[in-house]
């Protein structure tokens, strides 16, 4: 009786926790643009100057520039990733506008904004009647790639040292602007306006006046970013409207719930007690996997949901293999307890081998794939790991409690008829 009580308490506590936390998990799970609408753009990067090379650092810094621009456009959680040697993928879930037409207009504005390469300019007020910084003295390509570095003066205050490609140009500009401001602009936004203290003839300059290390590092990153101008060409664009995204989510959830209900019914009818335990463990599996996504801060997409459903199928297979092995042992004339031990033992290696091979395939997809392929692989890997815990070890423990209680010791409880049992 104690084991029955333990089984019931475990189930009730598990379902209670799941019921209390599930609304928060669902509300906190981020949805991809294919589920709530937005735009996905794949760019191919090219150097602006003939004979230039798209380096890994240049690609990374350009992706950072795109992300900053997207953030300034008031879009929700832009996702920017580099792919291969010269590609950048941008995903933005657009929330502007209540209709698809308004969202399409917002998407076009974002596309126009993203096309422009990062424009770094050093401006002076020479010849500007209104006193503004209207004269462009130097641009981003005048600086060496990644040359802006953080240094410290004698008072341990941070400063930024920059290196230019043309020493003479810097010398001419600095000589003309001694004791005058040389403002730094990125995309027409002024970042800093330091004063030129002296003529700079060695091809380097030091920018002081930053109040903190973070401010100095931000300035160095901006200069390095502007020193890596890349031209972006759209290779692929996918726009998903609000209506289509919502419909995709609703259809996917309905299909998932229907499939899960049919699976649970199948397990209960065909396997009885093991099927009941499997149904409980499958519900725990789904909840734990949702919790993993929430803790990872992962974005759920349609391919991710497909991998989620596939994970449920793999979990069902694990339970079916164990249940069938138990039935095979019962048919040989063994007791319920012996059949459970032998069936669990014999099925373990088969289940683990199947999981390892699937994990290898998912890992290859993750490391070799891009975009939606990688999203699919991440969910599949997580589902495999969670499945081992919730549908390999947990069912064994729950079945052991029920079997050792002595209340479920008939072969019919495991869907084995008396006529199927061989005499010892």
Strand order of the largest sheet: 3-4-2-12
| Share of β-strand residues | 15-25%
Query: What oligomeric state best describes the polypeptide chains here?
Result: single chain
What is the count of DSSP helices, taking H or I runs of 4+ residues?
A: 11
Shape label = elongated
End-to-end C-alpha gap: 31 Å
Task: Name the helicity range.
Answer: 55-70%
| Structural class assignment | alpha+beta
Radius of gyration: 31 Å
The helix-strand sequence is HEHEHEEHEEEEHEEEHEHHEHHH
Average pLDDT across residues?
82
Strand segment tally: 13
**How would you sum up the major sheet?**
4 strands, antiparallel
Low-pLDDT residue intervals, each spanning 5 or more residues: none
Summarize the structure in short.
A hairpin with a 2-residue loop joins β9 (183-186) and β10 (189-192).
Describe this structure in words.
With 424 residues, the chain is α+β, with helices and mostly antiparallel strands. 56% of the residues lie in helices and 17% in strands. The chain is built from 11 helices and 13 strands. It has helices spanning 2-28, 33-36, 56-72, 100-115, 167-176, 213-226, 242-271, 273-296, 302-331, 336-368, 372-404, and strands at residues 30-31, 38-47, 76-83, 87-93, 120-124, 135-139, 149-152, 158-163, 183-186, 189-192, 204-207, 230-240, 299-300. The strands form 4 sheets. Strands 3-4-2-12 form a 4-stranded antiparallel beta sheet. It has a 4-stranded antiparallel beta sheet with strand order 6-5-9-10. It has a 3-stranded antiparallel beta sheet with strand order 7-8-11, with helices on one face. Helix 7 (242-271) runs antiparallel to helix 8 (273-296) and helix 9 packs antiparallel against helix 10 (336-368). The longest helix has 33 residues, at 336-368. 34% of the residues are buried. The mean pLDDT is 82.
């Amino acid at each position: 009786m104690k084991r029955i009580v333990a089984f019931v308490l475990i189930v009730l506590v598990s379902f209670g926790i799941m019921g209390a936390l599930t609304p928060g998990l669902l509300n906190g799970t981020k949805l991809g643009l294919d589920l709530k609408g937005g735009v996905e753009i794949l760019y191919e990067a090219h150097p602006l100057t003939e004979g230039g090379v798209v380096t890994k650092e240049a690609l990374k810094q350009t992706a950072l520039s795109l992300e900053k621009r997207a953030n300034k456009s008031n879009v929700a959680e832009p996702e920017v990733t580099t792919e291969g040697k010269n590609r950048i993928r941008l995903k933005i879930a657009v929330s502007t506008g209540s209709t698809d037409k308004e969202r399409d207009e917002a998407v076009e504005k974002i596309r126009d904004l993203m096309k422009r390469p990062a424009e770094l300019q050093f401006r002076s007020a020479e010849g500007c009647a209104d006193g503004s910084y209207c004269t462009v003295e130097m641009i981003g390509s005048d600086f060496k790639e990644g040359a802006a570095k953080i240094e410290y003066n004698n008072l341990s205050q941070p400063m930024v040292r920059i290196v230019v490609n043309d020493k003479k140009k810097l010398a001419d500009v600095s000589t003309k602007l001694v004791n005058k401001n040389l403002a730094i602009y990125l995309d027409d936004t002024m970042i800093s306006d330091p004063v030129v203290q002296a003529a700079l003839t060695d091809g380097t300059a030091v920018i002081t006046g930053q109040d903190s290390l973070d401010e100095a590092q931000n300035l160095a990153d901006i200069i390095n970013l502007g020193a890596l101008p890349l031209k972006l060409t759209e290779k692929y664009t996918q726009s998903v409207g609000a209506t289509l995204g919502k419909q995709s989510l609703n259809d996917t959830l309905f299909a998932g719930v229907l499939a899960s209900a049919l699976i649970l019914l199948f397990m209960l009818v065909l396997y009885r007690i093991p099927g009941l335990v499997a149904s409980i463990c499958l519900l725990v599996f789904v909840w734990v996997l949702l919790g993993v996504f929430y803790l990872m801060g992962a974005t759920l997409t349609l391919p991710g949901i497909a991998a989620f459903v596939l994970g449920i199928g793999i979990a069902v297979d694990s339970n079916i293999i164990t249940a069938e092995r138990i039935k095979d042992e019962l048919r040989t004339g063994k007791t319920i307890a012996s059949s459970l031990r032998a069936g669990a033992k014999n099925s373990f290696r088969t289940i683990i081998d199947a999981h390892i091979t699937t994990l290898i395939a998912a890992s290859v997809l993750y490391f070799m794939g891009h975009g939606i392929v990688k999203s699919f692989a991440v969910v599949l890997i997580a589902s495999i790991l969670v499945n081992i815990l919730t549908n390999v070890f947990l069912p064994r423990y729950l079945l052991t409690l029920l079997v050792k209680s002595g209340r479920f010791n008939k072969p019919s409880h495991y869907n084995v008829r008396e006529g199927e049992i061989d005499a010892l």
